[in-house]
Design brief:
By secondary structure, this protein is mostly beta strands. Helix content is 9%, strand content 53%. It folds into two domains: 130 residues, Jelly Rolls, CATH 2.60.120; 102 residues, Jelly Rolls, CATH 2.60.120.
Length: 238
Amino acid sequence: MNRISYVVAIVCLFLVATVVSGQNVTPTRDTVVSGFFAYSDKELGNSTSLSRLHHVDLIEGITYCIGLESTEFNTSMLIEDLEGNFLAMDTHDSSISPGCIVFRVPATASYRLIASVSLPIRESYYRITMYELPSLFALVAELTPTDPLNDDSHERFYDVPLIAGLRYVIDMSSRDFDACLKVMTIENDIVAVEYACDSVRGARIVFTAPATEVVRLVATSATPYAVGTFRLNVCECD
């Protein structure tokens, strides 16, 4: 390693140590956290991967795009809460962008952001970028017994204008029932359906608008006759 590379490595290691020691990062547009993977055979032991921990402060209801770039191909990233409960991983959003997590925050808090790399490697630099996705449509509403029924599930309808060729992340979540989200044309033809895959992320549809037009979002439940509060959010991800 030449002198310049050695200095860069020391700076990156200092950045990692600063974050891991408990100094949190609050993401803004193009916030960057840099890091460095390196190990010696003595330190490795029986491990098959290396991980670096960062803490980030995130705000409830906001959708963040968190991307991982690395000089190695075998890196990955995940998000946990402070108790270590798994929340999201970059492979979940491969349809949006490789190495990217689109994370809608369930509660304002600090979260654990973990970057990992599979061995064998000797050294690898990585960079994490975090920024807020603009919300085009967001609401908190409630399914009630007076809402219309379809196949024994109550429904609510919302018309949203989209632009041709752009990709949108459409999220629906609820703590009261298993969310079900549909995208329909104004003529009521269904073009996409998704059920809640977990309690944090809820139901998510990544949708590329085929034309500049108004689409109809249907907020409903996967459980017959279920009612309760839900969140619905549309972000542009291009």
